Amino acid sequence: MIALTAALVGCRGGFPAEGEPDRAESITVPGGQCDISWWLTPLVEDVSEEAERIAARALSDADVSADEWKEWHALLDGDPDNDTANPVRLHGAAYLEVVRAEVRSALESAGYPDTKRIIEVNSQLSCAES
Fold this sequence. Notes:
The chain is α+β, with helices and mostly antiparallel strands. It has helices spanning 2-9, 49-61, 66-77, 87-109, and strands spanning 23-29, 32-42, 119-129.
């Protein structure tokens, strides 16, 4: 749940935002608007070109379905650490996590298991109520 909570507070895995994001979106959520950015960050020195391509393609192509968004929202909403989270931010964080999960899943399917993560999907979330 650390990663989920980090998403709600706008962390990028403890790193400050650097350079242009690998993906950025503005989304409408119930009660507001969120701007989300994602960066792919190598966690080891020798990330293969194949892994980089897979992660970049998955990040670019990640499509957030209504069902996935609902599932992640329910997961985040059920976490006691998020009891005081702003509902607008909670919806944005759920969207953010769907995209991150798509990248991790693509890497896992290609033989790069998340248990030996070589690329992190860092993110930044900024939301405003309407």
